[in-house]
Amino acid sequence: MQNPIIIALDFPNRQKTEQFLEHFGNKPLFVKVGMELFYREGLSMIYWLKERGYRVFLDLKLHDIPNTVHNAMKNLALAGADMVNVHASGGIKMMAAAKEGLYAGMQEKQKPLLIAVTQLTSTSEIVMREEMLVSQFTLEQAVVEYAKNAKNAGLDGVVSSVNETTLIKEVCGDSFLTVTPGIRLLGSSFHDQERVASPAAAARAKTDYIVIGRSITEAADPVSSYEQILNEWSGSFEISHR
Ligand SMILES: O=C(O)c1cc(=O)[nH]c(=O)n1[C@@H]1O[C@H](COP(=O)(O)O)[C@@H](O)[C@H]1O
């Protein structure tokens, strides 16, 4: 069983990030760099993490015209990240252009995973219908339609909430990756997230990766919070496979 945890390094700068990572010593972590840290520190942050052996998800959620995304991805390819993403709402043409730009001139073994965000885990069905004006689908249907588009564009998987994982796997196949943020231990604050699930529920849904930020980064003891999440995941995983 692989360790599914991706820690969201949502910190304002490199110094705070380094201080946080010191808690974990040499543990081989999978970490995520998003807009907050990247817009401050740029590619050098990714190089720093890769030199220290971390697996890195570069989460910039590209969404623009196909040509712009294609060329931006050519530059992001230089980061040497293990996973990058776009918004599925940019459409199939944009996602295909992202893939072409990202992989241009890359050897097979260097290619990062490319995934698409479906509906953000902070989005509720009401907001999707009334503010984004996607009213012909339920939220679950909209996520699955985006997942099908991502698959048709040749992407490796999607970001969604755990609520939609089972259906995505049914429609797109088990090998199509599901990456699921909005993970919370029972009884803890949802913050700005709407579609939330526990690590145990994520394991039962057989998601591939869980993305966790504040439950670990803001914990008084980040390592024990990390271990608690992993234990909850592993326990449920064994139960669900009995
Ligand atoms: O692409 C993402 O990583 C992402 C997609 C999504 O739908 N929801 C979502 O929360 N995320 C990211 O996952 C992380 C969740 O952080 P916490 O809510 O603190 O656990 C943040 O870094 C978000 O940017």
Offer a concise description of the structure.
By secondary structure, this protein is α/β, with parallel strands linked by helices. The chain has helices at 14-22, 35-41, 43-51, 66-76, 92-103, 125-130, 139-152, 165-172, 199-204, 214-217, 222-240, and strands spanning 5-8, 30-33, 55-62, 83-87, 113-117, 157-159, 177-180, 209-212.
Kindly give the count of domains.
Answer: 1
Model regions low in confidence, pLDDT < 50 over at least 5 residues: none
**Overall mean pLDDT score?**
95
Between the first and last Cα atoms, what is the distance in angstroms? 14 Å
Q: What is the architecture at the second tier of CATH?
A: Alpha-Beta Barrel
**CATH fold assignment:** TIM Barrel
- The dominant shape is globular
CATH class category label? Alpha Beta
Along the chain, the helix and strand elements come as: EHEHHEHEHEHHEHEHEHH
Strand order of the largest sheet: 1-2-3-4-5-6-7-8
Radius of gyration based on Cα positions:
17 Å
CATH superfamily: Aldolase class I
What compounds are bound to the protein? orotidine-5'-monophosphate
Pathway: Pyrimidine metabolism; UMP biosynthesis via de novo pathway; UMP from orotate: step 2/2
Organism: Fictibacillus aquaticus
Family: Belongs to the OMP decarboxylase family. Type 1 subfamily.
Domain Orotidine 5'-phosphate decarboxylase: 4-229
What does the model show?
This protein is an alpha/beta fold. It has one domain (5-240): TIM Barrel (Alpha-Beta Barrel). Helix content is 43%, strand content 15%. The chain is built from 11 helices and 8 strands. It has helices spanning 14-22, 35-41, 43-51, 66-76, 92-103, 125-130, 139-152, 165-172, 199-204, 214-217, 222-240; strands at 5-8, 30-33, 55-62, 83-87, 113-117, 157-159, 177-180, 209-212. It has an 8-stranded parallel β-barrel with strand order 1-2-3-4-5-6-7-8, surrounded by 6 helices. It is globular and about 45 Å long. The mean pLDDT is 95. Orotidine-5'-monophosphate binds at residues 8, 10, 34, 59, 61, 85, 117, 120-121, 159, 181-182, 191, 193, 211-215.
